[in-house]
């Protein structure tokens, strides 16, 4: 590892691998029906985000990105799954989601189109900015995951996958963020980690309330409020 | 210094509200806190008029004319909502449940804190967090009545605005990237962004703008993303509707407006075009939806969407006069919509239903609610002696002056349709022989018959009076200080003269 070029090439490849798996996990969140698996996928994705932050932090020699990685692990890998399991209640995870608005092959095809679209948006920006090699991986994949998360929220009908979709959107934004905005003020990072925790808590509590009041968490079937 | 104290007071009030010291304690604390906050906001605005930007913590907490205006509005509407909450929450919670009342006021103060934080913070990343917190603190206020409908509304609210927040976060990170690419040494504040904008790559700036417009647009209620607004506004308690409609939308719109100076001035700027397109679509769709709706709180919710559209068009026209009109419209809308939702809350208390066809002759059932609903309806629809009329007129006039006839023609048409829709619905409710036809699932508070006495709590009347005065006065007379503040705020947006 004494050769700096070798190290750079190794880190780039490692980061590209992390990014690739990150995108794969985002596809999983769109398609997988088991809710507990979805939660595990989200935790794995957060771990990948932390790894990407560590790789970039090591390369740039930035303590700041190490702190971001630490915050991600504490908040998203440890606290959020714990919070969600305790607030939502086990029975909401145990079942499978039966109906989706779009069936799985079709939604995977749409997800593929979304990824291409993300590259279509990201590449002109990367070219205009003269970005480094890490941003070329992280920005398009982060953007793809952001839009895939939004897509997951719209097609999934259960509360837990919708919640995880929103959290995955934030993960996507932060994966792009560690590459393009590596020196965001520390206070902002702390506040953002805190913020994600509250989102998980609030949505978890709301899911529990919905479950208790309606006896189900299929929020896609809630259509009492509309214009007639 | 005032700015820091404002934030501290709200946080302290939120904590104090939880102390179980009788059912009067939490409302009194909230009322006093919001009174002090309003006084401090006036001081901050005056200090701003005398000496320009008020700085509490450099690069973090400061307030220029535009943010002083939003701060002042937020503090005023917060005060009025605190007054109204007293009588309203007592009426809907009932005597026994102290705990629920304390929780309401604690969340109310936290929500107000996050709303006040949006204009107070100048660091863009923190502003994003404040915007996100407004959603999170408001969720359990929207679902306060814990009915299935309220929970459904709260879920739609958090899902849609949560998605929006994530999209806006991406846009904000892109802006930060742009700032570092421009080799600008300053911190990540609105002012430094404007200074660095010419050096940013334009694709980056445009993409960031679009993400923030769509993301925050979900919170403002721009049309494809407006669906949560009628649900949440119809289910939330009326004082919360006031905060959501009067302040939350304007404060988040303020974040979008802050991006306008990043673009080269003139009506042809890309940002201005997006503003006009989104604004016209929102105004038009909302104006027609108002005609169809059968729930008077949804009616006012769609009216919020309509007014946000009008303000967007005004801001997008790109001239200084249009920006001034947009500022005036923000003020007029906040005040008038507060009045409308207080009147809607009073109507709800008097009749127990939100259903428009069920209510006839409100003016005889509860004269006060009827009169204020009529005044509020006329004012929000844009009838001449009221503040909204001035704002709309200023925008239309400036558009004609800059020769944008198509945009102004469409806008005037939509405003006309909206006027007709609102007055048609409200006339139905207010006049006619007194009658409430309760449709069982629409009735509230477990009532099945009309109550004998329809006397509003005095705090509700006080809140109605406090809001109706500026709505009428601003329609005929604009105080010099307020004019100057509006003028300076419009100048921040940097339109061409």
Overview of this structure, please?
The complex is a heterodimer of chains A (228) and B (497). By secondary structure, chain A is mainly alpha-helical. Helices cover 81% and strands 0% of the residues of chain A. Chain A is built from 8 helices and no strands. Chain A has helices at residues 4-31, 35-60, 63-88, 91-94, 104-129, 133-155, 159-180, 186-214. The longest helix of chain A has 29 residues, at 186-214. Chain A is globular, with a radius of gyration of 18 Å. Chain B has 497 residues and is mainly α. Chain B has a two-stranded antiparallel sheet with strand order 1-2. In chain B, strands 3-4 form a two-stranded antiparallel sheet. In chain B, helix 1 (2-16) packs antiparallel against helix 2 and helix 13 runs antiparallel to helix 15. The radius of gyration of chain B is 21 Å and the shape is globular. Chain B starts with a helix and ends in a 5-residue tail after the last helix. At the A-B interface, helix 5, helix 6, helix 7 and helix 8 of A face helix 5, helix 6, helix 8 and helix 9 of B.
Please outline what is shown here.
Chain A is built from eight helices and no strands.
């Amino acid at each position: 590892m004494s050769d700096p070029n070798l190290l750079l090439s190794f880190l780039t490849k490692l980061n590209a691998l992390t990014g690739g798996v990150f995108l794969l996990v985002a596809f999983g969140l769109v398609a997988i029906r088991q809710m507990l698996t979805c939660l595990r996928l989200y935790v794995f994705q957060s771990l990948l985000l932390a790894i990407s932050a560590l790789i970039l932090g090591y390369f740039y020699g930035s303590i700041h990105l190490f702190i971001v990685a630490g915050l991600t692990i504490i908040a998203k890998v440890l606290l959020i799954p714990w919070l969600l399991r305790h607030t939502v209640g086990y029975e909401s995870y145990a079942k499978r989601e039966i109906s989706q608005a779009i069936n799985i092959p079709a939604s995977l095809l749409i997800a593929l189109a979304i990824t291409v679209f993300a590259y279509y948006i990201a590449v002109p920006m990367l070219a205009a900015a003269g970005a480094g090699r890490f941003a070329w991986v992280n920005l398009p994949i982060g953007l793809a995951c952001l839009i895939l998360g939004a897509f997951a929220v719209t097609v999934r009908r259960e509360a837990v996958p919708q919640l995880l979709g929103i959290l995955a959107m934030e993960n996507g934004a932060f994966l792009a963020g560690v590459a393009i905005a590596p020196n965001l003020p520390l206070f902002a990072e702390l506040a953002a980690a805190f913020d994600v925790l509250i989102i998980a808590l609030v949505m978890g509590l709301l899911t529990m309330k919905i479950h208790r009041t309606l006896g189900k968490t299929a929020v896609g079937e809630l259509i009492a409020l509309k214009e007639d | 210094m005032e700015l820091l104290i404002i934030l501290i007071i709200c946080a302290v009030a939120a904590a104090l509200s939880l102390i179980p010291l009788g059912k009067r304690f939490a409302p009194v604390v909230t009322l006093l806190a919001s009174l002090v906050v309003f006084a401090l906001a006036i001081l901050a605005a005056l200090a701003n008029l005398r000496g320009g930007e008020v700085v509490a913590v450099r690069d973090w907490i400061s307030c220029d004319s535009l943010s002083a205006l939003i701060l002042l509005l937020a503090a005023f509407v917060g005060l009025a909502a605190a007054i109204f909450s007293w009588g309203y929450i007592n009426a809907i919670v009932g005597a026994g449940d102290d705990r629920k009342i304390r929780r309401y006021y604690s969340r109310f103060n936290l929500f107000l804190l996050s709303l006040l934080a949006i204009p107070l913070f100048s660091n863009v990343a923190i502003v994003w967090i404040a915007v996100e917190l407004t959603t999170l603190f408001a969720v359990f206020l929207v679902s306060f009545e814990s009915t299935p409908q309220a929970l459904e509304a709260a879920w739609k609210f958090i899902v849609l605005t949560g998605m929006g927040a994530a999209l806006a976060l991406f846009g904000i990170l892109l802006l930060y990237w742009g700032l570092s690419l421009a080799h600008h040494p300053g911190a990540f504040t609105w002012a430094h962004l404007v200074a660095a904008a010419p050096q940013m790559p334009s694709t980056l700036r445009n993409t960031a703008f679009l993400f923030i417009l769509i993301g925050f647009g979900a919170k403002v209620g721009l049309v494809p993303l407006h669906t949560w607004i009628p649900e949440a506004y119809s289910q939330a308690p009326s004082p919360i509707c006031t905060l959501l409609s009067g302040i939350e939308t304007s404060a988040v719109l303020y974040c979008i407006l802050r991006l306008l100076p990043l673009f080269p001035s003139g009506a042809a700027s890309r940002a201005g075009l997006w503003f006009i397109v989104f604004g016209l679509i929102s105004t038009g769709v909302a104006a027609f939806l108002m005609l169809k709706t059968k729930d008077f709180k949804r009616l006012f919710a769609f009216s919020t969407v309509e007014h946000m559209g009008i303000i967007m068009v005004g801001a997008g026209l790109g001239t200084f006069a249009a920006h001034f009109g947009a500022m005036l419209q923000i003020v007029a809308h906040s005040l008038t919509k507060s009045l409308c939702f207080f009147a809607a809350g009073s109507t709800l208390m008097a009749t127990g239903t939100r259903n428009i066809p069920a209510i006839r002759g409100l003016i005889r059932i509860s004269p006060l609610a009827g009169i204020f609903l009529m005044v509020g309806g006329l004012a929000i629809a844009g009838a001449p002696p009221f503040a909204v009329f001035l704002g709309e007129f200023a925008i239309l006039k400036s558009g004609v002056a800059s020769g944008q006839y198509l945009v102004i023609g469409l806008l005037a048409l939509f405003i006309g349709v909206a006027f007709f829709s609102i007055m048609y619905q409200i006339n139905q409710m207010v006049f006619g022989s007194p009658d409430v036809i309760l449709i069982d699932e629409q009735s509230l508070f477990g009532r099945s018959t009309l109550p004998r006495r329809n006397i509003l709590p005095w705090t509700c009347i006080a809140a109605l009076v406090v809001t109706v005065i500026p709505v009428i006065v601003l329609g005929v007379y604009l105080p010099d200080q307020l004019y100057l503040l509006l003028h300076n705020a419009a100048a921040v947006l940097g339109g061409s003269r």
